[in-house]
Design goal:
This protein is an alpha+beta fold. The chain contains two helices and two strands.
Length: 72
């Protein structure tokens, strides 16, 4: 079965709603310690970034570059 999504956000939202504790991202630091971000956490973080960008006048469909430090 093939599922077509309209954008990258749609599958993220669906996963967060269906399985909020699903491990979406796992980072391993230099000490070998794993850090997991769940689907709900990933969705919440993305929503916060979207709100911040919108508050600064960024409209849907615009391309932006975000430069962050290497940390969780």
């Amino acid at each position: 079965m093939q599922i077509a999504y309209q954008n990258l956000v749609q599958p993220l939202v669906e996963r967060a709603e269906a399985e909020p504790h699903f491990p979406s991202l796992v980072f391993v630091d230099t000490a070998g310690t794993g850090h997991t971000i769940t689907a709900a956490e990933l969705h919440d973080n993305a929503a916060r970034w979207a709100a911040l960008l919108q508050a600064h006048g960024v409209q849907p469909g615009r391309v932006v570059m975000i430069n962050l430090s290497h940390s969780l």
